[in-house]
Specification:
CATH superfamily: Gcn5-related N-acetyltransferase (GNAT)
Strand order of the largest sheet: 1-2-3-4-5-6
Radius of gyration: 15 Å
Strand content: 25-35%
Order of helices and strands: EEHHEEEHEH
Number of helices: 4
Helix content: 25-40%
Structural class: alpha+beta
Number of strands: 6
CATH topology: Aminopeptidase
Distance between the termini: 28 Å
Largest sheet: 6 strands, mixed
């Protein structure tokens, strides 16, 4: 299980009495990442060794834990002063609707509160969630990709 990083663990209570602990860590096992990414149907979950390496490269990684189980995570990159980009936000479907995603976004917003921009690419079915978290759709920009991933 990862060690808690610089952000003190935060606890939240769900309606079913689960206790979620939020951590700042870049260390995950391949199995933890594979299970979480595949639980939301992301093809990157088929590359768990690459995900382990990727987590170490992000500027910010906050995760949500239900005991020993990785329930969700958010990962961001930044330029150190002006721009931050939320690259991953995912919550295991068994834990969705329990404010875990909103809490993780809040942690990123707090860390980058003095930055001029926090960006995220929200797929169409996710845009309403991001809007509830304070993000605004661009009227003059579109996301573009070069990718070999299928999700």
């Amino acid at each position: 299980m990862p060690e808690t990083g610089a952000v003190p663990p935060q606890r939240g209570k769900g309606s079913d009495r689960m206790s979620i602990e939020y951590k700042d860590t870049h260390e995950f096992t391949r199995d933890e990442l594979e299970r979480l990414f595949l639980s939301v149907g992301w093809s990157s979950g088929h590359y768990p060794d690459k995900l382990v390496a990727a987590m170490r490269g992000f500027a910010t990684v906050y995760s949500a834990w239900d005991g020993e189980k990785l329930a969700g995570m958010i990962c961001a990159m930044d330029d150190g002063v002006m721009n931050a980009y939320v690259h991953y936000l995912l919550v295991d479907p068994a834990y969705q609707g329990k404010k875990i995603g909103r809490t993780l976004v809040g942690m990123v917003k707090e860390k980058y509160k003095d930055y001029l921009r926090i960006a995220v690419i929200g797929y169409d079915e996710e845009c309403a969630f991001y809007e509830r978290c304070g993000f605004v759709r661009s009227t003059d920009a579109s996301p573009m990709f070069i990718t070999s991933l299928w999700t």
